[in-house]
Amino acid sequence: MNTLLEMKTITKRFDSILALENVSFTVEEGEIHAIVGENGAGKSTLMKVLSGVYSYGDYEGEIFYNGNLCRFKNIKDSEKQGIVIIHQELALIPYLSISENIFLGNEQKKNGLISWHITHQKTKELLAKVGLDENPNTLISGIGVGKQQLVEIAKALSKQVNVLVLDEPTAALNDIESENLLHLLLELKKEGVTCILISHKLQEVLKVSDRITIIRDGQVVETLSNVDVDENRIIRGMVGRDIVDRFPARDVVLGDVLFEVSHWTVYHPDIADKKVIDEANISVRKGEVVGIAGLMGAGRTEFAMSLFGGAYGTKISGRIIKDGKPIVLKSISQAISNGIAYVTEDRKQYGLILDETISRNTSLANLKAVSKHFTVDEVQEKRVAEDYRKKMDLRARDVLQHAKNLSGGNQQKVVLSKWLFADPDVLILDEPTRGVDVGAKYEIYMIINELARQGKCVIVISSELPEVIGLSDRIFIMSEGRIVGELSKEDATQEAIMERIMEH
Amino acid sequence: MLNYIKENLRQYGLIVALIVIAIIFHILTNGTIFRPANITSLILQNSYILILAIGMILVIVTGRIDLSVGSVAAFSGALAGVLIVQQNWPVWLAIIVTLLAGALIGAWHGFWIAAVGVPFFVVTLGGMLIFRGATMLLLDGLFVGPFPASFQMMAAGFIPDFFGGTDFNIMAVVVCIVLAVIFVLLELRKRFLAKKYDVESEPLLFFIIKLVFILTAIGLFAYWFGASNGIPNILIVLSIMILLYSYIANRTILGRHIYATGGSADTSKLSGIKVKRIVFLVYTNMGLLAALAGLVFTARLNSAMPRAGDGFELEAIAAAFIGGASPYGGVGKVSGAIIGAMVVGIINNGMNILGVPVEWQQVTTGLVLLSAVIFDVYIKNRSDRPKQNDALSTKKVQAGKAS
Fold first, then answer.
1. Which residue spans within A174-295 are E strands per DSSP?
2. Structure confidence by residue, pLDDT tens digits, A265-308
3. How far apart (Å, rounded) are the C-alpha atoms in residues A348 and B391?
4. pTM
5. Environment class of residue A52 by beta-carbon count within 10 Å: exposed (0-12), middle (13-18) or buried (19+)?
6. Surface of A (32-61) touching B: CB under 8 A
7. Global ipTM
8. Mutation site for B-interface testing, chosen from A13, A329, A375 by largest number of B Cβ within 10 Å
9. pLDDT tens across B122-135, in order?
10. A354–B contact, CB cutoff 8 A
């Protein structure tokens, strides 16, 4: 076999943050090459470099394809060479038909007009190839995610694909659909299509791939041939970093169980009968930090938001017991007045009003506390914000600075200020350190510890396993909407967590 | 200090623009525009746009627009005409019923927009057509009038001079002096409180400039009203509305919730704000103010007309944008909308005096609107630049979960 594609010492930075560091790997012609790694390891970034999303010059290093140096300016350039990427979030337009989607941007023309006959006929051929038995005129919104994934592949095939890149193609699929998709990949391989597969599901990776490259923290750890390799071997490669003491110590003083959720079931807001959370049970003691670990799409955020006054989902059932009493939370304001706070993972969209001052963001969830007779006492409001600024060591000129002008870590501190000012007993922190630099991370960990010391219940959701392990007294493991395991601090290792996730 | 100027560039820029425009027209019209009698008619002519602009700025702050207000104003005028002139209802009762009808129309729009989720553009465009048609049906295509004097007083009357000034209205001067004293005391108290609690307030120089500016303005008004017929009744209504709505917008929890809703509906929702209720309220209020504007307009012309209020909605929207409101929501001030409406009013009035045709007045208003918003975009682009490291680093961490 000869080398089809070679990525050589690729380094990609986002300002000061290193996303990829000297990544090199090669893809042989006709192989299925899997790339595995934890969330945030840099897999998707690497594929974006390959496909020209980040154009030549935006990264350091070189890409050779068929021995030629590639200088892709955009996706069109890479597609011209037959490198087609199918992203995690499908890029199909719901209210166009299957055939219109397949030939979007590549319309089949005759005398300058779209020929629907040719489009139709070609679509039929492509659908037969991917094994999808649907009418080309069916709207995308009318077929399930599994079939949509096949349409994406058909779309890729319509472009004379040589290298097909699939980013988590089975994340949203059920077992049978996944099986079909993997089967299709093997079929395409027989026809000579080279494939790069990014996946969290190691069983799938082991089933179809020829070689496996493991990426961790933006670097290639190793490339394994798929012989005599098992899941444990891969997991060790994925998480096997030395854990230095990045987490401040804390004296754990546990009180009684304050917050208890049982048989929590939530359905998808748009897709009828799709259970997003299935019979989840958790409990948190006073002064305890509880982690929820899981892969993306496991339902952690949905779980948290549905607890927060039904901010996500429909047909929510189950019980919340707080302080020994069952409570019913019908709205977010009810959740807040019952002492529950949810700190979002997406602070720009859901956590802050970017065009407002620090002071106004801080008071937002608890304006009543700085008001008299429905009138906001601005002086009092600024004093409160100033207090939190000092407590949190928020680096800003003053509390009248707008939130959009702060760095990620400082923005997160403003969001935390807002929720601390609402004085909750239960804090749910969703990815509290995402996009935050190392120093600010440590400070946020200190704040979490301080909250636990005050006897609050803290629930931390994080995709970074070392973080969950480092912070939590107890860890719940979530997979596909269910709580699939619970580990005490002593038993919690990255391997143990990954194993429990993969078992399900 | 430099930071303060930068952050408040838009507000000061607007006031400076107003003064410059005023001076230009003062020169061009050889002082006619600032003759006492003209000031009074300037206020009367623009009162209904000012009222609409107050309601519109709140709608715009939530990131929306109301296209129906011209038609709703016309409908309200027509309703008042039918009730007062044709049905001989007492004036006070007809006014209350008309205002309630306006609020109800606003609630109707608010219901579809907030509760059902129909796009605001469609709902209010529908309202524009529906209530224009309803106006014509109600009036049978005819003018209805004249109205009793008590109704006309609302828009055309003046506060009587209790002090019996003969060639100069003493009442106007007394009122202005009282206002000036109250204003200075309030400002000093605010500043004192800010100092006491060590909260930053505007630099002293700006504070003094602001005081001098506003006191000069009050003094000018004292002269203008004193030398003409006194304080117009409608100015009292307007002042109360401006103060009330500024207070609601700037000081109350409700006001904060309106700004938060426009700034980020998602964040507001997750902070426990009832976003739908806020949107509903804002549209209901807009209906109420549109009815008030319709009553004032009808009283001024002493006639309810089928085509009344044509284009009012656009003038109100233009005033809000010239006054610094952001089309994306979350930004805008009641005072800004008022100044924006004054800018448009002075330009139109000045050009009228100069005998510039209506066509050119529209061209000018359009250009002013465009340049005001271009100025906004320019400032925004400047202040938004560098500072961009974590949008990208979020991508690096790349764990984009569902929902």
1. 194-198, 211-216, 219-225, 257-267, 275-285, 289-293
2. 999 888 888 889 999 999 999 999 999 998 777 889 999 999 99
3. 9
4. 0.78
5. buried
6. 39-40, 42, 44-45
7. 0.82
8. A375
9. 999 999 999 999 99
10. yes
